[in-house]
Amino acid sequence: MRHRNVIPAVMFALALASPALAQGKDPVDLRILAINDFHGYLQPFAGGIRIDDPADRTKKITVPAGGAEHMATLVEALRGGRKNAIFVAAGDLIGASPFLSALFHDEPTIEALSLMGLDVASVGNHEFDEGEAELLRMQNGGCHPTDGCRGPHAFAGAKFRYLAASTIVKSTGKPLFPPYAIREFDGIPVAFIGLTLKGTEKIVSPVGVANLEFRDEAETVNALIPELKAKGVEAIVVLIHEGGFPTGDYDGCSGISGPIVEIVKKFDKAVDLVISGHTHRAYLCEIDGRLVTSGDKYGTLVTTIDLKLDPVTRDIVGTKPENHIVRSETLAKNPEQTALIASYQKVSAPIANRPAGSIVETLSRMPNDTGESPLGDIIADAQLAATAGENTGRAQIAFTNPGGIRSDVVKSGNGDVTYADVFAAQPFRNQLVTMTLSGKQIKDALEQQWADPKRPRILQVSKGFGFVWDNGKGDGERIVAERMTLNGAPIDPAARYRVTVNNYLSVGGDGFTAFTEGTDQLTGVYDVDALYNYFRSNSPVSPGSGGRIGRIN
To answer: What is the pLDDT of residue 455?
Structure first.
């Protein structure tokens, strides 16, 4: 990469100082449109997007945003009839999706993005929520192996191409999908390399990716540079499903931290531009002299990056990014998207609208300082209730992982809750597994909440069980053994207890390998159905008093 000038501001300067341009040859303009972490939000995300208040930058406001109908309109407008434009994505387009997409295993989302003209996308961790084979079906089409053809029409697969340079099939040693795609614009080739984060296998079900290896992001990219240069490629864009944590508003970056920083610093200098995701944040940053972008989450933003390509060196010589809010209150609805959504709603409505019960107030998934959340308590209670019977598992304790709780159950109107509301909170459809663990094994599992010290995953626990953790201790010593209790009695390390978790945790998901030691396993209902039945039996449901998890220091 040569003659590039990127400055850390809301609008980045165009650098036009290459020798070719100095000789009077006009640069080639290319507009890249980018999204990340769409997560099947075909309809606008209820939370919109939080941005600085233009009237008072010390305050935040919420802007209604998102939805495939509005995004398609914005994408079309941002293309603007340009000769050279391409629409790309940085992973997690599917997975952890709302009911309308998840009921059909995210087929509607793949179709919606294909209709918008998405060209290439990297693979995120949530693309593996249903395993390798299901992701291949997303690309290639066909009916679901268990549920069959449930949608309003045959599923043909993605019209865009998934890229996965660092995701290697162990049996072949080759990438699961092509490592990169090369597109030409006025004869100038531009390469797009797709990357999944290296830590994917630690945050998805181990069973679903057992045949895959997730290699180092920077090493993977750097190894591809000679191959791309041999093909005459100088302009290189990385689509990576890993990100950072910025300061500043959605359309700038006064500072950034997190994994993306060190990864970008390790990239070969031939890499010109990095489009990132995963952290659900929005930023336009400079890292190691390179532009790094991200577009929030749930379809609330579309990023444009206007490039200048030198016709002689064929490299990128200028970049100008901007994050555009998908304003759902002002952008018109794209009729193709409206028709697609309506076709799936017609099939899903009888299930979505089933009454579940009611709530007294919103049940929040946000944890307090101990890691406990009101909705987490209720979900754990629901899973205990579903597996406590003599014939359903004889469970005494239930644990659930916070990452599996994807949405608040929001009170609206008179507080009625539908199956779709419940599904939004528990969209993974994990089956419950009840097993026998010793008291020591339970403590071991709780210690694994800090398998990633930078991102503790505090398990939500059912009524009657409690524990205290010490923030001043190190690995293996954070759980205060004598303050692990069940119905007021200390947990005996040698005693055996019946414990329920979801099947994701039962196979060691999120690093909880202690649960794989459970014996006498009994598989039960889906987690979402346990929660639905809990609402039907206990409505109106209100947040409890908490206090199940304690913290010292």
So the answer is: 87
Give which of 553, 6, 68 is closest to 298, Cα–Cα: 68
DSSP state of 363: B
Rounded alpha-carbon distances, angstroms, from residue 359 to 162, 382, 528, 542: 41, 15, 17, 6
- CATH topology for 353-552 is 5'-nucleotidase;  domain 2 (3.90.780)
CA dihedral 246, 249, 251, 257 (to 10 degrees): 0
Same fold, 19-341 and 353-552: no
Query: Which residues are paired to 79 by β-bridges?
Result: none
Handedness of CA 119, 222, 136, 425 (dihedral sign): negative
What is 19-341's CATH superfamily?
Answer: Metallo-dependent phosphatases (3.60.21.10)
SS3 state at 246: strand
Count other C-beta atoms under 10 Å from residue 465's C-beta. Answer: 22
How far is it, in rounded angstroms, from Cα 421 to Cα 410? Answer: 8
Q: Structural domain boundaries of the chain?
A: 19-341, 353-552
The residue type of 437 is: L
Given CA atoms 390, 435, 533, 525 in this order, what sign does their dihedral have?
A: negative
Q: What is the DSSP string of 3-16?
A: S----SSSSPPP--
Alpha carbon separation from 281 to 181, 183, 258, 285 (Å, rounded): 26, 28, 11, 12
Using CA atoms, how far apart are residues 196 and 206, in angstroms rounded to an integer?
16
Token pair 């992001």: residue: 217
Under DSSP, the state recorded for 327 is B
Cα gap 116→343, rounded to integer Å: 17
Burial class (CB in 10 A: 0-12, 13-18, 19+), 279: buried
- The two tokens of residue 451 are 């398998």
Closest CA to 304 of 82, 470, 460, 484: 82
H helix intervals, 397-526: 419-425, 439-447, 503-506
Roughly what angle, to the nearest 10 degrees, separates helices 107-116 and 335-352?
Answer: 170
Name the pTM for this structure: 0.88
Q: What percent of the chain has pLDDT over 90?
A: 92
510-523 tens-digit pLDDT: 999 999 999 999 99
Residue 502 has pLDDT above 90, yes or no: yes
Q: Is 318 exposed, middle or buried (0-12, 13-18, 19+ CB in 10 A)?
A: buried
pLDDT tens, 201-221?
988 989 999 999 999 999 999
SS (H, E, C) 377-402: HHHHHHHHHHHCCCCCCCCCEEEECH
